[in-house]
Design goal:
The chain has five helices and seven strands; from the N terminus they run αβαβαβββαβαβ. It is an alpha/beta fold.
Length: 144
């Protein structure tokens, strides 16, 4: 993961020392993935004196779309980490649901999956919450 991050910065001629802030997707999602993402963000922010903010990974996935969108991350057993967003606003908060539960009473929606999604940097910046290197933590939602 770190090699990919540094390759990404290098390929775009970005020096990590020039970053003003880091916005970290804190989940929900893979237990290990969210822990690694938060750890990497915290280490980079702390070691380079960069401010850090957090955002829901589901909102991040939905940020690039208008209309009614439902971001989904597979939580196994036919359940999904999901939320519902419309025009960049969260209308149903992150939780674990079946597809049927999340789409009740909804029409004209679009599912967004972790395999392919669009990101709106503007919306992400607007929605990110302030955090710090010591309190940033993954958003774990348990599948029961």
């Amino acid at each position: 993961m770190l090699n990919n991050l540094f390759d990404l910065l290098k390929n775009n001629n970005i020096d990590i020392k020039t970053l003003d802030e880091i916005i970290c997707g804190i989940g929900p999602g893979s237990f290990t993935g969210t822990r690694i993402a938060c750890t990497v963000a915290k280490v980079l922010a702390y070691s380079h004196g960069i401010s850090i903010r957090s955002i829901s990974s589901l909102y991040l996935m939905a940020s690039g779309y208008d209309g009614l969108v439902i971001p989904l991350i597979d939580a196994k057993r036919e359940k999904y980490f999901s939320s519902v967003c419309q025009e960049g606003k969260v209308i149903l908060k992150d939780d674990i649901r079946t597809k049927e539960e999340v789409t009740q009473n909804l029409k004209n929606y679009k599912f967004i999956t972790e395999d392919e999604f669009l990101v709106s940097p503007k919306r992400v910046i607007e929605m990110a919450s302030e955090a710090d290197c010591f309190s940033l933590a993954p958003n774990y939602i348990k599948n029961v």
